[in-house]
Amino acid sequence: MTGAALPDTRDAAAEFAALTGDGAIKRQIRTGLVIVGVLAAFLIAGSTFARLDSAVMAYGVVQAEGQDKVVEHPDGGVVSAILVREGDLVKQGQVLMRLDPTQANASLAIEQTAVDTLAAQLARLEAEAVGAPTIAFPKSLTDRASDPAVAAIMAGQTQLLGARRHALRGQAGAISEEIGQAHSMADGYRGQIAAVDQQAQTISEELAGMKKLYAKGFATKSQVDQLERAASALEGQKREYQANLDRLGHSVGQYQEQASQLGRDRLSSVAEQLDDARAKLAEATQRLAAIQAVVDHTTIRAPVTGYVFGLAANGAGAVVAKGEKLLEILPKDASPIVETRVRPGDGGRLQKGMKVQVRVTASQWRGLPALHGTVQSRSADLIADPKTGQPFYSLVVAIDRDEVDRPGGPSLDVGTPVEVVVPTGSRTALAYMFQPMMESLGHGLKEQ
């Protein structure tokens, strides 16, 4: 073993020196620099010519496009039934909810009776005004004549018309009777006057003959005086009868005036009652209409076809205050909108009418194609958050109607969270890299 030959290391050392000599190292460095230069050239060329899309991103929630219909109750009441649920699609006029109508119906019945009574009274007064033998009741009553309450009102006014006519005839009859009696007494006085005239004529003839006899001495003075006294008595009796006849004539005139005044007073009274009845009927009709509206409002109907949301009442027995919101309906054909906030630096890149992409961020809708929309508006000035004080621009995006109705698309219920992407153009990578530096340089030059 000690005699074995050792390996010759001189050749290996020479080879190592050849590989690590100055010339080999320089060649390797040159090769590396060439590779780096080629890569840098490719990067610079790519940064110069390759363009990257730029966009503004924001987050928000789906809202109604200001067209949602708020269903309120003007009077309030107690809920008796709720017939819809959150998210239900309802048709225009469909019953959504009912309130307890008991109190409203009671008030309606009372006011309806008042209106019916005044309408019947007005018809009776109109019949009295023209002297009609019967009452022409309005159709609003005759159509409901089978209703016992209405029939009783009509019967009462018919009886009243007969009673008033009978009373008027009684008053007129009493006056006519007085006039008849006066005429009978006048006829009696006229007969007595005629008899007195006849007696006076006879006595006048006897007196003339007696005076002739007295002149010839065939009659006494007492006989002549007796006939003259008889003639004078008849004349006085005639004057008394004539005075009584004149008084009766005056009485007849008064009775006739009473009869005329009775007619005038009746017409005047009827006219006043007509005016009063018309005014009261108009007021009662307005009250009835108002109460009828309250009754109608106890049945809550959908003002438009759409989707129910924001249901406030939680079940039967709930008390609804006057003017309180019951629910809202998003019209079926209304386009949903997204209201979001963008940073101050991005606001200047956004304009009305720009196309946007909207993606629903809820997990069950991830992976679906983006929805298309349009920038509807952007606030003119920055707005400060009332809580944090951070400034922002308000951006409203309208989602296209066709996108909403797209089969298999996401559900865009009010409150659905979404991501909004607004493409704002494209720039080279080089521009992206140097833009911050250029903006800082420009800002510095402005300050100088």
From TrEMBL:
Residues 337-425 form the AprE-like beta-barrel domain. SUPFAM superfamilies: HlyD-like secretion proteins (SSF111369). GO terms for biological process: protein transport. Gene3D superfamilies: 1.20.5.340, 2.40.50.100. Keywords: Cell inner membrane, Cell membrane, Coiled coil, Membrane, Transmembrane, Transmembrane helix, Transport. Its main location: membrane. The chain crosses the membrane at residues 33-52. It is found in: Cell inner membrane. InterPro entries: Beta-barrel_AprE (IPR058982), HH_AprE-like (IPR058781), MFP (IPR050739), T1SS_HlyD (IPR010129). Residues 224-294 form a coiled coil. Belongs to the membrane fusion protein (MFP) (TC 8.A.1) family. This is Membrane fusion protein (MFP) family protein. It comes from Phenylobacterium montanum.
